[in-house]
Every structure is written in C-alpha cells, then in structure tokens.
Amino acid sequence: MLTHRKWEQSKLGEVATLSSSKRIHLSDYVRSGVPFYRGNEISTGGITSDQELFISEEKYREIIENYDIPCEGDLLVTAVGTLGNIWKVDDRRFYYKDGNLIRISNMKFDSDYLLSYFNGGTGKKRLLNSAAGSNQKALTMEKMREIPLLLPIDEDQQKIGALNIELK
C-alpha cells in the first residue's frame, strides 16, 4: 500500500542530470564491434533484428577513457523522430548517437519510477509537450530540464516502479 505522505514537486533538471554523447562520425562506423544505438534501438529496448551500426573496440575504449558513458540504470530517451520512447540501460556494452538520444543519469530518485512516470498519462504528456520546433519537433535537454515531476517518498517510488504502473 502506498503511504499518504505528501509528494514533492521538482523539475527534472533539479533531480537528475541530462546529457548527450560524444559525437561519432560516419568514418567511425565499422562492420562489427560495439553496437551503436540510435532511436530505433532505444524504441525496441536495444534489440533489433539486424544491428546496423558499430564502433570499433578502440573507439569505445577511447570514449570510456575520456568521456562519460551510460551506466546500468540510466535512462535514454528518443529525442527526434519518434519522440519520448524510453529505455532503461542494462548491462550491455554500447554507445549512442548524440542529438537523437538524451541520457538521464545521476537521478535522486528511483529510475523505474521515472520510467513509469514518463510512460503514463501526465508524465508522457509533459515530456511530449516539452518538444521544440514547428515542422520536425525534437526534445531538447534545456526544455526537458524544466519538466515538472511529482516525486513520492522513496518507498512509494520503488513500489510504483516495481509494479510498472503508468501514472495518469
């Protein structure tokens, strides 16, 4: 049973870090190696029938040594094309496309709760309403940082996240 303590309202950018990746150039793609995820892979949970893009092991090691990479539990959000699909990073090795995906990390709350929040009515609506542009809408880190969140106490976040409840 959920507790009856007051939920707090915060902006996403106050309780999490939003970031993108280091740019990978066309010349960095190879035939096999470390999978390179774009919106399609995130929309399908990182699983596609035919992985199309890879970066070399050497490039991946360079990125790990010099830049921040997604960690298990982080969330990746599709930012162009099909907007607002979210995937919780698991233990797979991969890298991702800058501009197409926004990473949510360093969350001061349960990541499964945010997954449920953004997959539900109000949260999904707030996420999609933050999109900028007229013809081709896109999510931006700047706008996403301003998205209001209702955050229950930790215990309730975990219960909601574990049940994968879509919040209305």
Descriptive labels:
four-stranded mixed beta sheet; 168 residues; alpha+beta; globular
3D structure, described in words:
The protein has 168 residues and is α+β, with helices and mostly antiparallel strands. 30% of the residues lie in helices and 20% in strands. The protein contains 7 helices and 10 strands. It has helices spanning 12-15, 39-43, 57-66, 111-119, 121-129, 141-144, 154-163, and strands at residues 8-11, 17-19, 29-30, 34-37, 54-55, 75-78, 86-88, 95-96, 101-105, 148-151. The strands form 3 sheets. Strands 2-9-6-7 form a 4-stranded antiparallel beta sheet. Strand 6 (75-78) and strand 7 (86-88) form a beta hairpin. Helix 4 packs across helix 5 (121-129) and helix 4 packs across helix 7 (154-163). The chain is globular, with a radius of gyration of 17 Å. The protein starts with 7 loop residues before the first strand and ends in a 5-residue tail after the last helix.
Q: What level of helicity do the residues show?
A: 25-40%
Pick out the low-confidence regions: none
Strand content: 15-25%
Given helix and strand content, the structural type is alpha+beta
Distance between the termini: 18 Å
Query: Can you count the beta strands?
Result: 10
Q: How is the biggest beta sheet arranged?
A: 4 strands, antiparallel
Output the number of helix runs: 7
How would the global form be characterised?
Answer: globular
Mean pLDDT: 86
The SSE order reads EHEEEHEHEEEEHHHEH
The rounded Rg comes to 17 Å
Strand order of the largest sheet: 2-9-6-7
